[in-house]
Amino acid sequence: MLQPTSCPRLPSAFASDIRNFAMETNIESYLIEKRVFKPAKEFAKKARIKSLAQYQKIYRESIRRPETFWAREAKELTWQKPWKKVLDWKAPFAKWFIGGQLNLSENCLDRHLNGWRRNKAAIIWEGEPGEKRTLTYQQLHREVCHFANVLKRNRIRKGDRVIIYLPTIPEAAIAMLACARIGAVHSVVFGGFSADSIRDRIADSGAIALITADGSYRRGAVVPLKNNVDHALSGGTTVKRVIVFKRAGNEIHMEEGRDVWWHRELEYVDANCEPIAVASEHPLYILYTSGSTGKPKGILHTTGGYLLGIYSTMKYVFDVRDEDLFWCTADVGWVTGHSYVVYGPLTLGATTLMYEGAPNWPEPDRFWKIVEDYRVTILYTAPTAIRAFIRWGDDWVKKHDLSSLRLLGSVGEPINPEAWMWYHKTIGGGRCPIVDTWWQTETGAIMITPLPGAIPTKPGSATLAFFGVDAAVVNERGEEVGANVGGKLIIRKPWPSMLRTIYGDQERYQKQYWSEFKGRYLTGDGARRDRDGYFWIVGRIDDVLNVAGHRLGTSEIESALVAHTQVEEAAVVGRPDEMKGQAVVAFVTLKGSASPSTRLKAELRDHVGIHIGAIAKPDEVRFAEALPKTRSGKIMRRLLKEIASGQNVTGDTTTLEDFSVLAKLSEEE
Length: 669
Ligand code: 7RM
What we know:
Layout: E1 5-6, E2 14-16, E3 27-28, E4 31-33, H1 41-46, H2 52-64, H3 66-74, E5 85-90, E6 93-98, E7 101-102, H4 104-108, E8 121-126, E9 132-136, H5 137-153, E10 161-165, H6 170-182, E11 185-188, H7 195-205, E12 209-213, E13 216-218, E14 221-223, H8 225-233, E15 241-245, E16 259-261, H9 262-266, E17 278-279, E18 283-289, E19 297-302, H10 303-316, E20 325-328, H11 335-348, E21 351-355, H12 366-374, E22 378-381, H13 383-392, H14 395-398, E23 407-410, H15 417-427, E24 434-436, E25 471-474, E26 487-491, E27 501-502, H16 506-514, E28 521-529, E29 535-540, E30 545-547, E31 550-552, H17 554-562, E32 567-577, E33 581-590, H18 598-611, E34 620-623, H19 637-644, H20 660-667
Parallel strand pairs: 3-31, 8-21, 10-11, 10-12, 12-15, 15-16, 20-21, 20-22, 22-23, 23-24, 33-34
Antiparallel strand pairs: 1-2, 2-4, 5-6, 7-17, 8-9, 13-14, 18-19, 19-27, 25-26, 26-28, 28-29, 30-31, 32-33
The chain binds 5'-O-(acetylsulfamoyl)adenosine.
């Protein structure tokens, strides 16, 4: 049935085939990627997992006996009291390491102080205006202990919720670790969010304190964080205390009896603070993510399992070494920032690089300048950033020596094969493995990913499941589908770093994630597996198109468009159509040198027709200056769907990065 034909204009490894599936419920898949990149021998030799066979052996064991696998890993962490039972699973409620007690900040800090790592850099930070700071493990430990005492002095106790509204500065990590040290539950709110978002999150979490800064820097301008906080708190909330770090020096109002300065408070307390032992299931943080309905969901993570998830993935996926400099470019306000800027690297005793600002400030080579200046060895970033770098042009990259890089990572969206190839060649110099890591706020840690010394990669595929992760692609009836048949991505077993609930809404937790297939976790993503069992994520299920009875994932059509020489980014959505059910509408942004024309529209439609098939040909191509994105860079197809069908945009737009984009898109007709 599979009859690949070679494609004239795409790299020869691309092939397309059209198939007709009897089962309409499945997502069909047409774009077949043939390129395979094996781990280099030199890389594999030094890696923790050195071959596909070794991965497969451990993976099989980890699925047969997950508790044995996780218990072995968990022994590498520091426990104040050992656990009695590894897992208590009463679907959909999991408890990991029952009876065990530990402290997360102790695992990130204290345990590295006994040996030489004491004087190793824990955090290397660069502010957007260019300031540089380095904190060794010893120094970071001291700062965290000192600030933990400030929290206590301000009557913050174990179990209390604390909002952290800070930019990506060391104090964000210090505040998070200080909360963990005393057992307070933090909820980081991204510094780009507005007063309304802060107010909603305070109300939902019942936070009693808030930690912020006067301001932060973004593209040279000062973001008035404290002002936003004042607005959020006006009219009264549960917040009794606001601790303000002086960052930008902008003028702010300090509310008598409520607001205190971070640096002043430090003067009243000493820097000795023992890490308290909390139960493994003690809440660590709540992180809000936007739900499709608008009401933000507070994803709750607990201590032991979460720590284990990030520890193991940091160790095997990034294969971090003492001599590495690890740079995850995410803001601390996202789960990626929690797991792979702060907690993951520190748990391993690695050096983490933090950068406060925008990738194109003051020039589009800021990232490459940082890589060169600090000799970054592992870079972990998002497809949206990679596509922006492609648009800005290779000259910005070529100005810099990137030879220190040895491993690259991608997260946040499916990475289009063309963007993958660019990342591989232009950034990685053809020598660095790429780990395309699939996971979610809810999963806490990476779930589907290559292991860089073991698993051959294919551009656009997150490859195989991580140890202990029982991922599968199923149809509407919950049956696993065959090779290259699309379906819903589910996880069939509990895993340590899984969310425990939606804060304050147990019912929504059960309904949203565990009701469609009983006892199985519904990710909400569509996917297929190829003949090698590799996972290809095709987008959110809600975004799947149904064209004349064919269910099409958005990512393949988008990838075909992005493979066209003049296209920078593409987002594909459905518009109601009387004949076909849904018509395919493609929003396209062009590279600097290209200009919109009717001819180009026709060419792009044909291009998709040739490379995927007539069924996927966009009925309409719309050129746009920019696409609506969340502040973490994900394309908001929901908004585009409404625009494509001529409706007004409704629902939650608080996560939208740039509102002017919407107006421009609607004008485009
Ligand atoms: C880490 C993060 C989760 C959603 C997820 C997917 C998409 C993330 C990938 C990906 C394809 C990837 N958390 N997603 N990583 N899709 N390949 N490697 O992004 O909660 O903000 O988003 O992001 O749809 O469900 S998140």
